[in-house]
Amino acid sequence: MKKTLPECVCFLQAVFRTLSPKPMSLLLILCLNAFQIQADTVVKESISLNVEDVPLKEVFREIEQKTKYRFFYSTKVVNENRKVSVALSDASIETVLATLLDNSRIVFSIRGDQILLKSARMNRSNSSGALPDEAVTDSETGLASESRKAMTFHGFQFSVAGKVTSLAGEPLPGVNVLQKGTTNGTTTDAEGRYSLAIPDQNATLVFSFIGYTSQEVVINGRTVIDITLSEDVQSLEEIVVVGYGEQKKVNVTGSVSTLDAKELNVAPMPSITQSLMGRTSGIFIKNGNGQPGENKVDYNIRGFGRALIIIDGYPASDNDFNQLDPNDIENVSILKDAASAAVYGARAGNGVILVTTRRGATTETKVTYNANYALQYFTVVPDFISSEQYARMENMSRYNEGLPPIWTPEDIQKFADGSDPNKYPNVDWWDETLRKYAPQVQHNINVRGGSDRIKYFVSGGYFSQEGMERSGDTKSKRYNLRSNLDVAITDKLDMGINLSILNQDYIGPIRQLERIGNRFGTMGSIFRARPYFPRAFPDPTKLPGLEQAPPVNTEIDYVGYKSWNRLTGDAKVNFGYKLPFGLKARANFHFYRMYQNNKERARKTPLYNYNWDTDVYTLIGYTDDPSSLYERRYMENNLDQQYFLTWDKTFGDHTINALLVHEVLSNDFDWIDASRIRYDFDIDYLFAGPDLDKNNNGRAGEGGRKGWVGRITYDYKGKYLLELNGRRDASPKFPKDTRWGFFPSASAGWRMSEEPFIADNFSFVDNLKLRVSYGQLGYDDIGNFQYLQTYSVTSQYIYDGATNALSKGIMADALANPTITWEKMTTTNVGIDFMFFNNMLEGSFDYFYRRRSDVLGTRLQSIPNVVGAVMPQVNYAEYDNRGVELTLNHNHQIGEVQYSIGGNISWNREKALVVDQAEFASDEARRRGNRVGEWTDVVWGHRTAGLFQTKEEIETWADQDGRNNATILPGDVKIIDYNGDGKITAEDQVIIGRGVNPKLAYGINMSVGWKGFNFSMLWQGAGLFDINLRNSPDLTLPFYAGNTPTTALFRDSYVPVTDPENQWLPPNTTNARWPRYRSDNYNRGHASSWAFNDFWLISGSYIRLKTIELGYTLPQALTQRVGIETCKFYVSGYNLLTFSELDFLDPEADTSPARQFGLYYPPVGTYNVGVLLQF
Amino acid sequence: MRSIKYILLISFLAFQACQDDVLDRSPLDKIAEGDVWNDPVMMNAYVTNLYSRLPFGAFENYNWYSWSDEGTLSTGNGGALTQGTMSKGNEGNAYWDYVFIRDINMFLERVGPAAVAEETKKQLEGEVRFIRAFVYFEKMKRYGGVPLVDAVIDPFSPIDSKYTQRATEQAIAEFIESDLNAAVGLLSDSPTPKGRVNRWTAYALKARVMLWAASIAKYGTVNLNGLVGIPSAAADGYYQKAIDAADAVIGSMKYSLYDANPDKEENYRLLFLDEGNSEVIFEKAYDGTNIGHSWDAYQGPNQWAERGGLGDPTLDFILRYENADGSTDQPEFGTDHLYDNGRQPFAKKDPRLFATVFFQGDSWQGGNVQTYEGLDPSATPDPSAVIRNPNATHQGVPAAGLDSRSLTKDDFSTNSGFLIKKYVDNTAVKIPENQSKTNWIVFRLAEMYLTKAEAAFELGEVDDAVEALNMTRSRAGISLVDAATITLDKIRNERSSEFAFEGSYRYWDLRRWRIAESVLSKRFQGLQIIFHYESGKYYFLPFDCETFTRAFRAEHYYNPITNSRIDNNPDLIENPLY
Questions:
Q1: Burial letters A844-883, b for 16+ CB under 10 A, else e
Q2: Distance of residue B484 Cα from the nearest chain A Cα, in angstroms
Q3: What does the alpha-carbon distance between residue A982 and residue A975 come to, in Å, rounded to a whole number?
Q4: B570 and A919 in contact by Cβ < 8 A?
Q5: Which of B38, B66, B53, B64 is nearest to B102 (CA)?
Q6: Are B25 and A702 a contacting pair at CB < 8 A?
Q7: Cβ–Cβ < 8 Å for A342, A473
Q8: Contact A493/B at CB under 8 A
Q9: CB < 8 Å to B47, chain A
Q10: Is the peptide bond prior to B381 cis by the omega test (within 30 degrees of 0)?
Q11: Is A1122's Cβ below 8 Å from some Cβ in B?
């Protein structure tokens, strides 16, 4: 028999070559299969079939009704909706199948009464002409041959049986099970079960299935082997969600990054955006702060502005996105280029984040429970100096200014020996106020299942996070419920219902760690409190002042609270209806309401000073004066509709998909707030406050959008891909004349791997696709109604000081711009996707160039300001961005060890092309002022040359204080006189660095699985940005506003050599990292040392171990006894290790000036333990 | 099942019908242009906004005293105006608000055709002309001549160079004068409410502007073809106009010098707390809730203030007060001179001093102000033995007072040993920031007398000067002058004593008299107040209360136009010497 097979193949090859002009490869598969089927099947049965333009699956159903055959296939492989036409009478099943699957790149095999459909790609080595020996052929195809059957029939005494399931626990039918190195094999049945006779007890079984990673298992004498196959995420068959639809990844011609939701569950984080860090290319994320309930995260796509977020088809807010339960997410797609985002028109210029939630499946009901408990901790904890060091340092600083010391040697001695802890305490206020760990808990239970008619996914989640304050008074909770139903009402009409409710609760002390408005933050108090302030006074009811004792800030009982509740209800209903000619209609409706309720209660608690000698308490003030209660109600509604018409058609080698969408979005908001002050009672409602000084306010707004979306995709033989997109979009932000815009884009792909010259010569290439896209997008995320001249109520004034009656003033808003319209962005994207060595190496590379025109900006420079107008935003500026992105992944399985390693790296930068710029009066003015043609992220400032060491050096140096350096002392920063005119002025400024946003972001992903164990690690890093230490004076300027310096400042600051009497600290001159300190840093004009210059600019680059996970799944054999399908335990961590030049702050820390760097809630890391159960 | 599609179709159509207007939105929180200019309520609200933006130089702008010789700041008093670093790249005390000018001009252009009662229009126009004059005066004081914009300019068509180039300083003075003359004709003569401009307010501003213009003409130098400076020939005319305007206010008999309390010190203190009293011509009102300030929180002694001790009178300023009896001897300091309290060395001084400045031991709200910064435990005074640690005590007596400069290093306490008392409310403790409600006096009658005194003296009308000057001197309770003893110095010094810490009087006086270079280029002093435990008395050690020598150079009589303004508008010419 071994010889007959190739001969037959050759024979048939010859026959078909003469009969048909079709490409050889495809033919060969068919003929080979046809032959094998004939050899394999015993029973011949003739079928008559006459259908026209009917979906494949209906044909299958008909065959199933007429015959004993049952079909098995993965819907990922077989497009069961493909329309076919067949007219055959009394044909064999093979003929029927061959006709049906002609041109489909699907091959079939028949085993008994099972018909198995598979992708032809698996058979490429058969079809490539150079047919290898039989063993290889069989291991590749898994097809049984006569000889193999004979072997089975001959009945070796040893056989292996078992069940193959997916990671989710679903049985996998049609999995090839093959004895390695032989042709002996079988496939699994509908329940995923298999049985195979084996001649060798020590043989190795190979389990393979399309869309899943193959596994090899040594039998080792076992008779039952159950296997779980993990999905192969790099599969060619992967489906990608794109705007208003989905596509096979291989057919995508735009630039789309995708993320599998499974990755998001590793180390649960308070917000989804945090989980995305480092996981995919093209998205830049910065973890802003760790405030429970807020967890600010900055992110952008390709360095652009705010991206559009779409959840299940509709625009969503940042909060909706961040608060999604990761267990509810199916996948996330990031649309990066114009071609993929164009369908979102005027909003999508900065890219789109598409989130799809999970839906039901046609499987038996699965209940999944996922719970974890985490401990949060601050990634960087500053180390403050002791009381003794403080006293020494302060005396030193006074000495630097020529002032007498304030602390006597006796004082310092007492601080040092701790003999009088009442009067000479030594307190670490960080430790006193903040705890080392704060808990974070997450639970989720979901049920997924369904039948042909109804599929459901219902999920409930709970998330809670406590603040790092020792008081434990800060608590944030989230409850979420989601129910996604898909109902087939009739054969033609289907309905989907997505309901989701999100409830968020927050309560915490009114003084947060971070400064909010005028309310000083506790973090600031910690920096301000000095180590020699007492913890408490003898009378515990007499509280020390806030700056004197930061823990008071953290107690709701003392300072009052701030609480809010946000309830979001979201209902999406859609109806789909199948029309003739491959047309489908769909109507989607969306109703969304967000209701938020804020309450802030400030308590007036007296604060005291205490004199230990005289035992006298003096009132120094109140926590808040007057006491107050503030409430606010906010409501936001969205009412949206979408109408789809889709058309899918295949004509021979040509496949066309067309889409037409009409979208109408409308939204409104309304808020009202009220407050009263000077509360006498401790009743937290407005009625209890005095009628005097009542205050209230309110505001409302509305918006909307209309759009028409069209898309046509064309695919020739799966080789040449073309996509045309367009959206006609209107926004009420613009006047009628400029309201409508058209945003076209086109993209094309060439799957070179399908060309014979690649397929024939480079068999290791599984996929190689070149793609290019070009298109125009808009961006309209700007203020409303700028085309109208309006007036706002802005100010107040009292005419009569006797009655104090208040009058409100109105003021003209900025000049109207009657021609305002959106910013336009033209993006070109060139990319290549590749997959080599049987999925072992997969990756993609993208280059993009985006040119923004009509960018809105106010003309300030080019119009003399004597005009005095608040200039309107006009569309005039131009910028361009460029960037590259590279993703590489390697997957492999060696024995029972499955591993993957991958990474992504993205770079981008922006240049200004046209900006508002006046004529320059001089070359120097041009040098400093010109921004045209320059990178937009550069930072200008003075260059420095370290610290002054001697008086002589100061005298000969350029005049940097405007007073011939009379105010400069050794230990101050030396500024370079760039233009050599002997004076340090603005004219000496040069480009000294980059901005605060990383231009380079990367992630490195590693995972290993062995038996039940899995281990994964994600490193994430960013680079090409700077951190300005002047934004954190509390950490870099000793005694700034009376702060307590860190030990780093104590150790590393410049300390001059003085007479022994005043040498409180050992001299530190040439090695000093910081300038000499002085006690009057706050608010003073030390232009030399404390002015912004490159001395204070350090590279922000960092790399950190973002997440790490170790999990163990108990053997199923064990867990099934107690009815549990899967039981997995895991430990994980978040932000565990960090490498950065910034050693006293988290490198991701928020740098926005409003929240002074360092004086806010720093980002946190976590240690997690969790369990995942599946029934 | 078949009917489902019809139900869907109908609901779809119904949905469409009610959603058709998503593109026709209007702003719900804005007022349309057409609704403003024919409605007296809206026009009044427009003017209200202009009032709220007037550069009053009130409590919010506390720094004035720190730029003049009156005081220093607990925060160190650095900056362009004190350290002499004002340059074309670094301006201090800038005021170049052409946005405000545009909004003012917009009103003046729209008020004419507005379909509103003439009476209303007249009053509002008068008020707005006053406001424009006030604003241009602020610019003129800083820059001399500035671009004179009296119309709403369209930014999208070519701009006439008369708007982009600087007018001469004299042209600005004349423009201000003409606006005020017009305002006088339009405005009501009712003296109330005091936050609204009336005819007398317009006269008061005119008196101030004319005195300024006269001083510039007399003491300044004409430069840059008149962009800065006023020809000296014009001086006398302006002095006369200042007198005339002051006389108009005085002669209206609507106002009188506050003299409600027989105790001269207390009377003068209450002048600033007794709101809306007969001396007040124009004030900025505060209610402490919607519109509040932080004077009490910042300036009060630490014991009673939220923050405390920000503004600190210098010893130089205190010594300038005349002795009430006309003698000229000054107090003596040092370890040889022990006093019972902080006031005693200055006991002979003008009573106004004690209503203006806090001294060690002053009683206040049931306690005593304690600004002593150290305790000397030695038998005979010995400065080297002084304990300054605020946490230390000696025999149960704290080593440093609760309001002293040793108290903390948080910049929350005096740097000079003195604190500001004027305007500090003695009826409430620890008033939080932004919740003080004392009204700020912009114009009071005393200024009219002192303007008249100065102008008359400059014109040689000595008798008129004597009469006017004695009005405030007698109210203050110090010796009167006569034609023989009156001097320019006495007139100038009287302004310092009368208007101390009332915003910008002193700072601008030093500039218009062109004496700032000599008065301000020095190192200012404070007093270390030491409690001598053995004797129970105090001694005083003068010391440098600032860490640097202040610098005021000739170019600083005008602010720089600055590089950034010239970059924006190359028609501007920089002021001399920058």
A1: bebebebbbbbbbebbebebbbbbbbebbbbbbbbbbbbb
A2: 43
A3: 11
A4: yes
A5: B53
A6: yes
A7: no
A8: yes
A9: 809
A10: no
A11: no
What are the Cα distances from residue A151, in Å, to A41, A155, A189, A201, B546?
A: 16, 7, 21, 15, 104
Cβ contact B246:B452 at 8 Å: yes
How distant is the alpha carbon of residue A919 from its chain centre?
Answer: 43
Closest CA to A884 of A337, A338, A333: A337
Nearest to A389 by CA among A1168, A926, A1055, A1105: A1055
Is residue B47 a contact partner of residue B124, using CB atoms and an 8 Å limit? yes
Helical H segments across A715-764, by residue range: 756-759
Q: Which of A798, A930, A972 is the best residue to mutate to test the B interface, defined by the most B CB atoms within 10 Å of its own CB?
A: A798
pLDDT along chain A (1175 residues), means of 10: 38 41 38 39 64 81 78 71 79 79 74 71 40 35 38 52 76 83 81 82 81 78 81 66 86 85 75 84 83 84 87 91 90 89 86 91 87 92 90 82 79 90 90 94 93 93 95 94 94 93 95 84 87 89 84 92 96 92 92 96 90 83 87 95 92 92 92 90 85 85 90 92 92 83 92 88 89 90 81 92 91 87 91 88 94 86 84 89 94 83 93 86 83 91 90 89 78 89 86 89 92 90 88 76 81 84 82 78 51 86 92 86 88 92 81 67 91 90
Residues of A in contact with B196 (CB under 8 A): 799-800
Most B-contacting residue of A525, A579, A620, A866 (CB-CB within 10 A), to test interface: A866
The pair of structure tokens assigned to A626 is 């007057």
Q: Is the dihedral of CA A263, A268, A272, A278 positive or negative?
A: negative
Q: Do residue B22 and residue A808 have CB atoms under 8 angstroms apart?
A: no
DSSP annotation of A1121: G
The partner residue sitting opposite A423, judged by closest CB among B89, B391, B563, is B391
Task: Nearest chain B residue to A662 by CA: give it.
Answer: B16
Handedness of CA B229, B231, B232, B234 (dihedral sign): negative
Put simply, whether A483 touches B (Cβ < 8 Å) is no
> What are phi and psi for residue B520, nearest 5 degrees?
-100, -15
Which of B89, B398, B408 has the CB atom closest to A986's CB atom?
B89
CA distance B15 to A284: 40
Least CB–CB distance from B4: residue in A493, A705, A804: A493
Q: Do A664 and B19 touch (CB under 8 A)?
A: yes
**Integer Cα distance of B293 and B296 in angstroms:** 8
Asked if the Cβ–Cβ distance from B31 to A739 is below 8 Å, we say no
Q: Does A575 touch chain B (CB under 8 A)?
A: yes
Whether residue A1080 and residue B30 make contact (CB cut-off 8 A), yes or no, is no
Q: Which of B8, B23, B82 to mutate to test the interface with A (most CBs of A within 10 A)?
A: B23
Rounded distance, CA A938 to CA B42, Å?
A: 46
Measure A1084 CA to nearest chain B CA, in Å: 5
Structure token digits, residue B121: 């229009």
Strands (E) in A99-190, as ranges, are 106-111, 114-119, 159-166, 176-179, 185-187
pTM of the full structure:
0.75
Task: For residue A613, list chain B residues with Cβ-Cβ distance below 8 A.
Answer: 393, 396, 398
Contacts of residue B569 in chain A, CB cutoff 8 Å? 864-866
Q: What is the DSSP string of A1062-1105?
A: G--S--B-TT-SBPPP-TT-TT---HHHHS-BGGGEEE--EEEE
In whole angstroms, give the CA distance from residue B161 to residue B174: 20
Rounded CA separation A471/A509 (Å): 9
Nearest chain A Cα to B274, which residue? A802
Which two three-digit tokens encode residue A574?
């859609």
